[in-house]
Sequence to fold (293 residues):
Amino acid sequence: MGRLQLELLSTEISFYRDGNTFLSGGGPEQLHTLADRLLAHGDDACAARAWTLLGQAAWLRADRATAVACLDRAVGLFEPLPDSAQKADAHAELGRLHMLNYERDAAVAAAETAAEIGERLGLAEIRTNARITAATARYQAGDRVGLDELHAIVEFSRAQQLLALPRAMQNLAYAVREEGDWLRSDALLSAAPARTASGQTLTTSYSGEAMRAYFDGDFPRLLAAADAFVDTPTGGWDMQVRGLRSCLLCCAAAGAAGAPARIGRRVGRGAGDRRGQGRLGLRDPLPVAAARQ
Fold:
């Protein structure tokens, strides 16, 4: 393995170990430079891997345009190359990005390509992550089969002790919450094992503590959790927490007598209403305690 390949491996480990530090410490810029150097040295496979990582870094920042450009570049570089785990991963990440943007057909197509490569290579983790993406995309489009598939994937991942289990459980928790069952959704999130540091287990960012405070009606706790979250490098994903925080701050700034009590009652009723309707967010939906990823 050459020096540039070792540098790419080291960069990938740093990214997956601590995404926020990588994003805030100039990691994407260094990785972009490394991708160009690898391509200049004729190492298309490693250059494509670098572009895949750049795409992941972009979607973690909720930067769709950059993520699409990077992942399209990765898929294009991999196209003439033999099947590999890295090639499958590029298609899987492109599928996940389309799923995050509610683009069902593109998401399913890219995920199925990743699954086919994973099948040929015997890569259970890649196949399972691709199934998660396709199932979530179908559910978002109103296909109830997607929800059944997510249930099946969770059981399969648990039985096989796959690293995909945390992602499968988080996406199932999102779907269950969309169905109106906040308590079961929160239970799924609480029971999910901690993710390991790898690309396929990257998750979109959200503030579970802020959302739990919202359902509990504890607005000081919601503000504290939101303040700690919104300015992180990946905090752009949770738009609902940002909105709730802004609403509460505006009411507090108004200073009218009884305003805190009134906003507490109104937001509290909103929490109950939205819980009943199962429409708390969109993110992996874009905002809330159980985000798609």
The CA atoms of residues 139 and 203 lie 18 Å apart.
